Amino acid sequence: MNIPPRITVIGTGYLGATQAVCMAHLGYEVVAVDVDPAKVAALASGKLPFFEPALDTLLVETLATGRLRFTTDFDLAAEFGDVHFICVGTPQSSGSDAADLRYVDAAFGELARRVTRKALLVGKSTVPVGTADRLAERIVELSPAGAELELAWNPEFLREGFAVEDTLRPDRLVFGVRSAWAEQMLRAAYSPLLAAGTPVVVADPATAELVKVAANSFLATKISFINAMAEVCEAAGADVSLLAKALSYDDRIGGRFLKPGLGFGGGCLPKDIRAFRARAEELGVSAAVAFLHEVDQINLRRRSRTVDLVRELAGRSLQGVRVAALGAAFKPDSDDVRDAPALDVARLLYLEGASVVVYDPQANANAHRAYPDLDYADTLGEAVDGADVVVLLTEWAEFVTADPEDMGVLVAQRRIVDGRGALDVARYRAAGWEYRALGRPAEV
Ligand code: NAD
C-alpha cells in the first residue's frame, strides 16, 4: 500500500506510550487509547506518567507535529486505524502463575465490536502461546457484519531504560501472520525500520508468541546460571566475579547477562517465565520447561542471601540496625518497581526489624505506593546519614560513581553490601570500608 497505514495503539503504559510516540516520530498518524483518563490527560499534555530516558522529549516533539493524539475514545480509534497495536498489560494472575489475559481480551473485544471495515489487529503484549488463535475466533464472533478484521502477533523486545532506542533501532522484528495481506500491512507500518535494514522474521502467530517468552526464558536462565555459580562460589570460597570474567571471553557464552548479583525482576521476566510454565503444563509439556522453576528459585534466593550479607556485616540481629537501601527500581534508568529485587530486599530487611531508609533517584514515588511502611530519603546523602550498613540494590550511575570518602563521612559505620557487584572494591577498601558482595569471599 502506498498511503502509510493509520496507526492506533491500545494501552499507553511503558510499551504502548513508547510505541505511539515512536510511530508518530517515524511519520505515521497515530491515535493512542487507554482506559485510564489520568494517564491519557498527562500524555496529551506532554507529561510522561513514568520515567523513561529520551521518551519525555520525544513525546513533546511528536505532540507538536499534530500526528499524535491520546484519547479514551475507542470509537475514534476504531474508525481511525488501519493497523491497531494492542499493548495492554498481561500481569501474573493473582493466586496462580498464569498470565492474566483479561486486559488483552477486553482490548481486542472493544475494537472487534466497533471496527466496521478492513483492519489489522496486532497483539504486541506478551501472551501465552495460543492466545492469538483463541482471539482470532472471538473477533469473528464479535465483529459487526461487513468488518474484515484480521489478527497478527508482533511481540515486543524493548528494554525499559532503552525503550526509544530499542523501538527505533530494534535487533529484529517478528511478524506472526496468517496472510500475505497482514504481512504487507505490518511491513507498511514498519517501513522506515525495514528500509534501515532491520531483520524481519515472518512466522505464524503461535511461533511469534513463543519467540518472546523463549527470549525472556533464555535471558532469565543466563542470569540465574551465573547466580547459581555464585551460590557454589559462596560455599567453596571462590570468586564468582572472576569466574564470570573468565567465562565471558568464550564467544559461545559471551559476557552480557552474565553479571552475578541480585538478579532479575520487573514487569516482564519473572511473570513471563511463570506464565510459560503454566502454559506448558496446559499443553502437556511441563517437563520441557521445568528448569524455569529453578531459574525462578535461584533468582529469589539471591534476595535472602543479600539480607544474610547485611546481617553478617552488622555482626548481629538486624533489630534496630540502620540500613541505607540504595535503589528501589528493578534496574537503573527506570522507575518501575514491579517485582523489583531491590524493594523486596528492603522489605525483608524491614521485616527483620532493621530501620531501613530507601533512596532511588526516580522510583521513590512508585516504591512508596507499593511499600508505604518503609522510610524514603530524598537524596543519597540523607539515605546514608547515620547508616550502620549501606546496601547497593540498583546500580544507578549516581551510586556507582559516589565517592566512598564522601559517603564515609556521613555513615555511622563504613560497611557496604554490593548487591550488584558494581562498585570499585579497591576504592571502598582504601577508604576503610568493610565490603561484601554476592558470590565473593569476604576478604576479596
Ligand atoms: P503497563 O502496565 O505499563 O501498561 C498497560 C496499559 O494498558 C495501562 O496504561 C492500562 O491502563 C492500559 N489498559 C489496560 N486495559 C486496557 C484496555 N482494555 N484498553 C486500553 N488500555 C488498557 O504495561 P507495560 O509494561 O507497558 O506492558 C504491556 C505489555 O507489554 C505486557 O504484556 C508486557 O509483558 C509487554 N512488554 C513490556 C515491556 C516493558 O519493558 N515494559 C517490554 C516488552 C513487552
From TrEMBL:
Q: Please list the residue ranges annotated as the UDP-glucose/GDP-mannose dehydrogenase C-terminal domain.
A: 324-425
Do you know which Pfam families this protein is assigned to? Answer: UDPG_MGDP_dh (PF00984), UDPG_MGDP_dh_C (PF03720), UDPG_MGDP_dh_N (PF03721)
Annotated GO biological process? polysaccharide biosynthetic process; UDP-glucuronate biosynthetic process
Full protein name = UDP-glucose 6-dehydrogenase
UniProt record similarity statement: Belongs to the UDP-glucose/GDP-mannose dehydrogenase family.
Name the EC number(s).
Answer: 1.1.1.22
| Residues reported in the UniProt entry to bind NAD(+) | 34, 39, 90, 126, 160, 271, 338
Spell out the catalytic residues: 268
Q: Which UniProt keywords apply?
A: NAD, Oxidoreductase
UniProt-annotated binding residues for substrate: 157-160, 212, 257-261, 265, 331
User: What is the top-level taxon of the source organism?
Assistant: Bacteria
Listed under catalytic activity are: UDP-alpha-D-glucose + 2 NAD(+) + H2O = UDP-alpha-D-glucuronate + 2 NADH + 3 H(+)
From the UniProt record, give the pathway where this protein acts. Answer: Nucleotide-sugar biosynthesis; UDP-alpha-D-glucuronate biosynthesis; UDP-alpha-D-glucuronate from UDP-alpha-D-glucose: step 1/1
* GO MF annotations, alphabetized: NAD binding; UDP-glucose 6-dehydrogenase activity
What residue ranges carry the coiled-coil annotation? none
Keyword Secreted attributed: no
